[in-house]
Amino acid sequence: MSNIAFIASDSLSAQDSLSVLAKIHGNTPVEKAEIIVALGGDGFMLEALHSTSHLDIPVYGMNRGTVGFLMNEYSSDDLLKD
C-alpha cells in the first residue's frame, strides 16, 4: 500500500516526522488515500478521527505529542510491514 496520507499536529516533532515519512513514502492527499497516518498526541488523534470520519478510511496514529495513550509508538522503519 503506497497511498498513505500523513497528517501532523503543529508540534516540532510531529512536523519533523511528517517530513521524514513523506520523503520515504510520499504523501497522498487525504481524500485519495487508502490509510491516514496521524502524527501527534491523543488530542490530535481525536481531531483526525473526527475530521476524517466521513471518508471511511482507517486512521493509524503514531505518538509525536506529549500524551500518547491512544497512539502507537513512532517509527519511520517498517511502516508498511504486515
Descriptors for this entry?
about 80 residues; alpha/beta; 3-stranded parallel β-sheet; 2 helices; about 20% strand; globular
Q: H/E series, N to C?
A: EHEHE
Cross-sheet strand order for the largest sheet: 1-2-3
What oligomerization state is this entry in?
single chain
Major β-sheet annotation: 3 strands, parallel
What is the radius of gyration computed over CA atoms, rounded to a whole number of angstroms?
11 Å
Tally of helical runs: 2
Give helix % range.
Answer: 25-40%
Distance between the termini: 11 Å
Fold and architecture overview:
There is one protein chain. By secondary structure, the chain is an alpha/beta fold. The protein has one domain (4-63). It has helices at residues 12-25, 42-52; strands at residues 4-8, 35-40, 59-63. It has a three-stranded parallel beta sheet, with helices on both faces. The longest helix has 14 residues, at 12-25. The radius of gyration is 11 Å and the shape is globular.
